[in-house]
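Team,

Forwarding the record for the chain on the shared tracking sheet. I've put the sequence and predicted structure together so nobody has to dig through attachments.
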Amino acid sequence: PITHPMTFAPLEVHRYHVTSVDGTRVPFVCIRQKGVTPKAQFIYVYGSYGSTTPVNWPYQQWYPLLQRKWVIVFAMVRGGGDVDAAWADAARREHRHVTIDDFEAVIRGSQKRHGLGPAQTVIYGRSAGGVPVGAIVSRYPHGQLVGAAFTEVPYVDVLRTSSNPDLPL
């Protein structure tokens, strides 16, 4: 028996779009506690293998951030399966850079929307999500765009892996 069951405050979920460098409209989803003005943001990216973004994920893993007035942002970049098959195919092999461009656009758009700067922005990628996270850290090595990056088992060997025609990246 659980003596003090966990309860969750009501959440707000909003879907927005930003324009990537090539003019493509890129969706992103923001989740925060209802009525809260975010003091920081945690931006999740994957964008590979045609996989959909796990928007229902924050309850278990990221809820402590929501309790601390953070907004959780899910970048639905090309390469992922959030739109259609063409969306997923648009970022494969020699076009992999569009995932990174889309991710940067989402970061900038979310910062503007929430009034947050680089010091209040953390980016996160797991596995293939390590490509866009690593690229953003490489593009802005002195914290000009994000204050911190968090990766788990990051895939960052783009040259060797993306040039392998047997892999779907």
